[in-house]
UniProtKB/TrEMBL annotation:
Belongs to the exbB/tolQ family. It holds the Pfam family MotA_ExbB. GO terms for cellular component: plasma membrane. This is Biopolymer transporter ExbB. Keywords: Cell membrane, Membrane, Protein transport, Transmembrane, Transmembrane helix, Transport. The keyword Cell membrane applies. The lineage of its organism: Bacteria, Pseudomonadati, Bacteroidota, Cytophagia, Cytophagales.
Length: 233
């Protein structure tokens, strides 16, 4: 009779324990949102977000600038060649003015130096090309700096998290989940955020550098073609 009562009590208590476990699991799954997780990282997340914003802005701004600067050098140089064959220097200058690109500014500089020795014209074109390349590379080096700083800031967050853990253990005299959870959140969240920002900046730096190198190659080819046009005429 006693065993029967114990069994009935256990069976009646089982649903309650199962429901409690399910509720705890549901709270664990949905209780921590992305915002809450980010806030667990502490104040170190603020400079990381600033670095992320700067990185994304530079990547988008430089990409649009380089893409706009690319234009269509083949059609532009064909137009310059056709005008120079006709000895229409003013028409060639007008075409350069209508094409706001680094290549057009290089050619326009060369056209303004007509009458001088070809070596001086070539030197003028190369100088303008260097200036235009520097404009294309503007702020790209900042991405390289961010790629190095962001993981270091994440490491600072890791150190802060470890300090929190030891402080909590020392304050309570106990070593448990309650003492290490806060520090572990700070440690892991800041480390992950620093690496993510660093990866974005690193990838953006090399991607934009490749785009600039391609643009430089096209500008050099067009400059050589322009000098050939001057020699032929």
């Amino acid at each position: 009779m006693f065993l029967l009562q114990v069994t009935n009590a256990a069976v009646s208590a089982a649903p309650d324990s199962v429901n409690a476990a399910v509720n705890a699991a549901n709270q664990a799954d949905g209780g921590l949102s992305l915002i809450d997780l980010i806030l667990k990282g502490g104040w170190i997340m603020l400079p990381l977000f600033i670095l992320l914003f700067v990185s994304v802005y530079i990547i988008l701004e430089r990409y649009l600038t380089i893409r706009k600067a690319g234009g269509q050098p083949e059609s532009f140089m064909n137009g310059i060649r056709a005008l120079m064959v006709k000895s229409d220097v003013q028409g060639a200058k007008l075409l350069c003015a209508q094409n706001p690109s680094p290549l057009a500014r290089m050619v326009e500089k060369g056209l303004r130096r007509l009458g001088l020795p070809l070596t001086e014209i070539e030197a003028s074109v190369e100088n303008v090309g260097k200036i235009e390349i520097a404009r294309l590379e503007k702020n790209i080096n900042i991405l390289g700096i961010i790629a190095g700083i962001a993981p270091m800031l994440g490491f600072v967050g890791t150190i802060i998290g470890v300090i929190k853990i030891f402080y909590a253990i020392n304050a309570t005299g106990d070593f448990g989940i309650a003492q290490i959870a806060g520090g572990l959140y700070t440690k892991m969240v800041t480390s992950a955020a620093g690496l993510i920002v660093g990866i974005i900046a690193h990838a953006g730096y090399h991607w934009l550098s490749i785009l600039v190198e391609r643009m430089v190659f096209r500008m050099e080819n067009s400059a050589i073609e322009f000098m050939d046009i001057l020699q032929d005429n």
